[in-house]
Design goal:
By secondary structure, the chain is an alpha+beta fold. It is built from seven helices and 19 strands. The strands form five sheets. Strands 9, 11, 12, 13, 17 and 18 form a six-stranded mixed beta sheet that branches. Strands 10, 14, 15, 16 and 19 form a five-stranded antiparallel beta sheet that branches. A three-stranded mixed beta sheet has the order 1-5-6, with no helix packed on it. GO terms for molecular function: ubiquitin conjugating enzyme binding; ubiquitin protein ligase activity; zinc ion binding.
Length: 321
Amino acid sequence: MYETAIKLSDSALEDLRCYVCSGYLSSSPIRVLPNGSCICGRCLPVDRSTATCRVFALEAILNNVLFPCPNRVSGCKAITHFNRTIEHESKCIYYTSSCPITGSNNCAWEGSGAEISEHFLKHHNYLLQGSAQFTITSNEDSHGIFLTHPDNLYIVKYDYDAKQKMLWYDVRYCKQESFHDLNYTIQILNSNHHDCTMYLKGAKCHLYNSTFFAKESRIQLNINQFYQYLDEPRSITVVIHFKYTNPGGYSAQNSHLVSSLIETLTESLDMFFAKAFWFYREYILRHSKEIIDVIKTVFYLAVTQVCVSAITGSTKVNHKR
């Protein structure tokens, strides 16, 4: 489909601008207005009652055109095909954004997402911390925002209402390495008794952008429903665990294949150890059963690691092709 894709000159691309958003006509449906102007698939006419007509012929032509990222002025070098740009834009870290520090300490900085780390280091280094976790006191209102550094760049914002025992939080990434499907899991634990802990359902981690400032984007957590399970703590520590669900192209299909291989190998190994025990029973009975359990565990882990390495390795080779 894209074998004949061409890259247009900047002057030619300027003629392929949306009448509403001024972005490229890089996503369908492309509609033409009564005045002859075109709007992209992201937009609607300013006047909703305006009659429009979809231009299928233009879409067929644009299928062969390569479009630069709208954030190329900020450093993005990505070039995408028609109808692939929206997906890229939702993950592009070169978008122009404002500083997440608002309120009484409002910061007027604006720049690309790729520059947030440097900005925090220079102007808000007191908000940098090495781990993605925070602590709230059960009977005190609190709120905060911080950025993890240096391993990965995640922005975490939280707001706790002690009277309602309600916690609102939002977690975003702002680093290119996070382009894979990234999820996170929330762990809440009694700050004084770490044995009293719970893991909550995971959520998808989104790119830091303007929606970070919207209250609707926050996740609400009712601490009260976990209060007794945590042994009525005076303070609660919230830990955020990140997990890549699709690193290096590791697909759900490969995951299913690995699971099947492990299941088959486990059954075979169980049969092997059963026969080995019967054949060498006189010798084995002289030794501790714990030693046999350790050997089996190590063997299972080794086989599992080999299977995962083999599958992920073959996937990377296929990507290079």
